[in-house]
Amino acid sequence: MKQGLFEESRSELESQTVSAFGYELIREDVLSDLLGKNAPQLLYWAGKNLARKYPLQSIEEIISFFETAGWGTLTVDRMKKNEMECHLTGELIAARIKKNAEHSFQLEAGFLAQQIQQQTNQLTESYEQLKKRALKVIFTVKSEKLT
Fold first, then answer.
1. How many domains does the chain have?
2. Is the pLDDT of residue 137 over 80?
3. How far is 91 from 135, CA to CA, in rounded Å?
4. Label partner for 119 (CA 20 to 30 A): which of 84, 105, 145, 146?
5. CATH number of the domain within which 112 lies
6. Is residue 7 part of a domain?
7. Domain that holds residue 122
8. Which DSSP category does 16 fall into?
């Protein structure tokens, strides 16, 4: 079976690491400056675009991708027929929430929405909710049948 793009990239770069500081400089400072007030909308679109480049076959693969990308620990809290709630936690997530109340997790939301849409063939959107006290992000992922 042909190895997917995610697995190829992962195996090539797995032994290398990037400091969280370096990642946050690009994510919080450079991207914010470049994208300006449109950052959340553009990051959501960028997340959807990334998902198209790295198509995954299951929720387990999505969870693994989040870990490998350094986006945090993604867990599925509950699933209904056309709705799913996921929690994103981790040291970097907690630090980001503590540091910047205006932080957006729209890159991750867009990525998650597009992955689920590709897996279910249903129009899907994802909404983020910051839980500052719990230091986590909750994504509500909603799907509806394509006509």
1. 1
2. yes
3. 9
4. 105
5. 3.30.1380.20
6. no
7. 43-145
8. -
State the Cα–Cα distance between residues 72 and 34, nearest whole angstrom.
24
Return the closest-CA partner of residue 68 out of 82, 54, 87, 79. 54
Q: Is residue 9 part of a domain?
A: no
Using CA atoms, how far apart are residues 128 and 111, in angstroms rounded to an integer? 12
Domain-embedded: residue 122: yes
Report the C-alpha gap between 81 and 144 in whole angstroms.
10
Read off the tokens for 91: 């040291």
In the sheet that holds 73-79, the strands lie side by side as 73-79, 83-89, 136-145, 122-131
Give residue-wise pLDDT tens across range 65-119.
999 998 999 999 999 989 999 999 999 899 888 887 677 899 999 999 999 999 9
Predicted structure pTM score = 0.84
Q: Does the structure show a pLDDT above 60 at 132?
A: yes
- φ/ψ of 102, rounded to 5, equals -95, 10
* CB neighbourhood size of 88 (10 A): 21
Q: Determine, yes or no, domain membership for 25.
A: no
